[in-house]
Specification:
42% of the residues lie in helices and 14% in strands. With 253 residues, it is of the alpha/beta class. The chain has a single domain, classed as Undecaprenyl pyrophosphate synthetase. A six-stranded parallel β-sheet has the order 3-4-2-1-5-6, sandwiched between helices. Helix 4 links the parallel strand 3 and strand 4. The longest helix has 24 residues. The radius of gyration is 19 Å and the shape is globular. The structure holds farnesyl diphosphate (FPP). Farnesyl diphosphate binds next to helix 1, helix 2, strand 2 and helix 3.
């Protein structure tokens, strides 16, 4: 994940999103939480449209955390049904629009019918290049890092790798999304200002943006505000402002 910094005023290459506030949106309307998630699925489409329109190359959304399995059974069930429906309904159209779909997280925890749909969506869209859509499902940042550490440890134990060969670049190649630039911009809706175990390794130098807007109420104007704020920021990656303004420098993002 070694990438040069983007120029100021640029569109993010990779947007990472925590889609929070579905439950509260439904509660405000005296509706069940599942209705909020359904409205949240529509907002995912809006966000995808926005990325396609703006030329953002990668979008990673946090659809279901490792911890979300602990929610009430009926809510988990409603979310599973929603994921299944979305996979059945949306994939062909996303494919037509040049979207490459990938899932990150512990896929083995899902029912086999959902896993099969996930595999099919990835296989069908693997050759697309317009937008890389990554759906974090049963994902946790600590679990992602632990899995990377385990895979390196296995290589060392098998004699394929020496401990001194392990550096940030090698470690980064074992975490999720390793084939993409690190997220430039992170957006969280719903008013809470935390990362909640999302992409802990990958967000090291990401610009963070929070909004009170509840996810189902998302609109293009809110996303545009995030982009405008991002474009106004100076990203220094640990260097000085003068260095960043200089003509040549190498940075690991
Ligand atoms: C957080 O809101 C949202 C989730 C746990 C689920 C996210 C799912 C979707 C947006 C819909 C489907 C997604 C795809 C990719 C098809 P919350 O329930 O924690 O809201 P609250 O904080 O108001 O309770």
């Amino acid at each position: 994940m070694a990438t040069p910094p983007p120029e100021p005023g640029r569109i993010p290459r990779h947007l990472a999103v925590i889609m929070d506030g579905n439950g509260r949106w439904a509660q405000q309307r005296h509706r069940p939480r599942a209705i909020g998630h359904r409205a949240g699925a529509r907002a995912v489409n809006l966000c995808i449209d926005f990325c396609l329109e703006k030329g953002i190359g990668a979008l990673t959304v946090f659809a279901f955390s490792s911890e979300n399995w602990g929610r009430p059974e009926d809510e988990v069930g409603a979310l599973m049904k929603l994921f299944m429906n979305a996979l059945e309904r949306e994939v062909a159209e996303l494919h037509r629009r040049g979207v490459r779909i990938a899932f990150i997280g512990e896929r083995e925890r899902f029912a086999s019918a959902i896993r099969a749909r996930m595999d099919q969506a990835e296989a069908l869209t693997a050759g697309n290049t317009r937008l890389a859509l990554n759906i974090a499902a049963s994902y946790g940042g600590r679990q992602d890092i632990a899995a990377a550490a385990r895979s390196l440890a296995e290589d060392v134990a098998a004699g394929r790798l020496r401990p001194e060969q392990i550096d940030e670049a090698l470690f980064g190649s074992r975490v999720a999304l390793s084939g993409l630039p690190a997220p430039d911009l992170f957006i969280r809706t719903g008013g809470d200002c935390r990362i909640s175990n999302f992409l802990l390794w990958q967000l090291a130098y990401t610009e963070l943006w929070f909004t009170e807007t509840l996810w189902p109420a998302l609109d293009a104007a809110t996303l545009q505000r995030a982009l405008d704020d991002y474009a106004s920021r100076e990203r220094r990656f640990g260097l000085t402002g003068a260095q960043v303004a200089g003509p040549q420098h190498e940075v690991s993002a």
